[in-house]
Amino acid sequence: MSTTVSGKSGTWRNWAGNITARPLREITPASVEELSDAVRRAAEDGLKVKAVGTGHSFTAAAATDGVLIRPQLLAGIRAIDRTAGTVTVEAGTPLKRLNAALAREGLSLTNMGDIMEQTVSGATSTGTHGTGRESGSIAAQIRGLELVTADGSVLTCSEKENPEVFAAARIGIGALGIITAITFAVEPVFLLTAREEPMPLERVLAEFDELWAENEHFEFYWFPHTGNTNTKRNNRSAGPEQPVGRLSGWFEDEFLSNGVFQAANWVGRAAPAAIPAIARISSRALSARTYTDLPYKVFTSPRRVRFVEMEYAVPRAALVDTLRELKAMVDRSNLRVSFPVEVRTAPADDITLSTASGRDSAYIAVHMFRGTPYQAYFTAAERIFTAHGGRPHWGKVHTRDAEYLAGVYPRFGEFTAVRDRLDPDRRFGNDYLRRVLGS
User: Fold this and answer.
1) Looking at per-residue confidence, does 274 or 260 come out higher?
2) Residue 6 pLDDT > 50, yes or no?
3) Strand, coil or helix: what is 41?
């Protein structure tokens, strides 16, 4: 049986606490049939419908005052096809559950973002990505999709079946329907060796092209108010497994990266003048380390300090200039930024609204501790990102609208045409989608 909360409105909040919604109904369907029925009933009642994952988006992409679908009962692996190298998984499955299940089967995704709390459908719909020279976002690893469309029917798509829907729906921002299952490409499980080490920002920028070319997965964190970065290189390894030791892992990942970092941010929020000094200490707190483990344990790490985030994809060739401009802006401003700036890359892909659609991309993510004013910093950063033709992450804070986005996405019209066909009445619409896709 499904759990249906009818006529009773609770308040839904996202992880960061910056978005709230009061849906008229909340429904937790236990099957695709129940979900289809809920969509048809919403249409009869003239209500909008949105599915919500774990709320790790910073935008109102999933907010609704109509019917809120919680997909947590639509979870688990449906099928593994070892010959095809695919796994089909229900949409509400958290990435951490998928990763653990795949590892038990001796399988792995090729690439991952840096957290695994999200549902597979939420992560892919907003374009969640890690960093990779040849391997792209989680959505770029999709081989097939099943979704409930506005009339309650179930549509399947792949490169061969409904290919124009497939091109759009892999990163659909919830605008085309409610995803019920995803088929991912997987491969035999492998080991990654991570090498983390501090490096001066100037050296990283001077050698960025080589660091990118020499490593399968390269990323770095720059600490504003300093010239310091922490770099991370992940490459495939023949082994043996040498995971981070329990004590040193707790010290670096929990005590320093979460516990002490949380306390430092509390101090910074209370006394912003202390932030540059805190940043200098933070940027030197983590020492170099090397470890070898299963991919998902290397790609992801716990994120317990809550923040608000903006991230833009710029052409990879524009990264160094963009980051230099960002640093110059922070240096000459009165801003006090306690969170590092995260930089990652992705190869061009063929998904219509992917931030890497048709171009090799670099991602620059700026963060502010939850509860501190972020608008001045984000506005100044966004001005720099958009000057380089930046594309905002669909699940992170930004102020762009359909007119701007149509100019930076060559296939924008292709996406809106699929939307017009699948959801002409905007059953899956909300204020956010009206802004970014138009009415």
Assistant:
1) 274
2) no
3) helix
Amino acid identity of residue 376, one-letter, is A
Whole-number Å distance between alpha carbons of 429 and 389: 26
Q: Which of 225, 87, 213 has the alpha carbon at shortest distance from 144?
A: 87
pLDDT score, position 4: 36
- For residue 436, what pLDDT is reported? 98
CA distance 373 to 250: 31
* Cα distances (Å, whole numbers) of residue 212 to 229, 362, 366: 15, 10, 21
Distance (Å, rounded) from C-alpha 183 to C-alpha 165?
15
**What is the C-alpha to C-alpha distance for residues 144 and 139, in angstroms, rounded to an integer?**
10
- Show the CA angle centred on residue 368, arms to residues 217 and 354, nearest 5°: 45
Cβ-contact 181, 206 below 8 angstroms: no
The 8-class DSSP code of residue 167 comes to H
Amino acid code (one letter) for 378: F
What residue type is assigned to position 404 of the chain?
Y
* Helices within 138-245 (DSSP H only): 163-169, 201-206, 208-214
Q: Using alpha carbons only, how large is the chain's radius of gyration in Å?
A: 21
Q: Sheet containing 77-81: give its strands across.
A: 77-81, 86-90, 178-185, 142-148, 154-158
Residue percentage of the chain with pLDDT more than 70: 95
Question: pLDDT tens, 209-225?
Answer: 999 999 999 999 999 99
pTM of the model: 0.92
Residue 23 has, within 13 A of its CA and on its CB side, a CA count of 25
- Per-residue tokens: 157: 């798509």
